[in-house]
Specification:
Layout lengths: L1 H5 L3 E3 L20 H7 L3 E2 L4 E7 H4 L9 E8 L7 E9 L6 H5 L1 H10 L16 E4 L2 E4 L1
Antiparallel strand pairs: 1-5, 1-7, 2-3, 3-4, 4-5, 6-7
């Protein structure tokens, strides 16, 4: 679980395709309609919160990411119709042995897209964060 939490590392709160290799289809603040029409109904969270997990290969087909890495859209609004995109996260879906996490696939993707950052002598136990400011948006790793 600790490794899963560590690798909820990317809070992608940006919109420009120049900044990311993935095409997230909508921007922060946009209505969820385009995503809901393409991928189905969102999952309810706390009151006023909706989630839409999407396998990363559907949005990042050229990035060697697999179905064990999900792109999760986070929407805020009282109803689905009023839901606006608040954040985009990329999450490693680990098994009990942290198999995908230990491959460092998501970490390598982040370094390729946003730039290198210090992960210490053993990247598998990286337990910190890095922030990039891109076009008035923050990317938090």
């Amino acid at each position: 679980m600790k490794n899963l939490i560590k690798f909820i590392i990317v809070f992608l709160t940006f919109s420009s395709p120049v900044q990311a290799a993935c095409d997230f289809l909508i921007d922060i603040g946009d209505s969820g309609k385009k995503i809901f029409d393409k991928f189905g109904q969102p999952l309810p969270g706390f009151k006023g919160q909706f989630y839409m997990p999407v396998p990363s290969p559907e949005l990042c087909p050229n990035d060697n990411l697999n179905d064990d890495i999900a792109v999760e859209y986070v929407f805020l609004g009282e109803t689905e119709d009023a839901a606006k995109l608040a954040a985009i996260r990329m999450i490693v879906m680990n098994d009990g042995k942290n198999t995908e996490n230990n491959k460092l696939t998501l970490m390598r993707y982040v370094k390729k897209v946003y730039g290198d950052f210090d992960t210490g002598q053993n990247p598998q136990i990286f337990d910190s964060f890095k922030i990039w400011e891109k076009s008035n948006n923050d990317v938090i790793v």
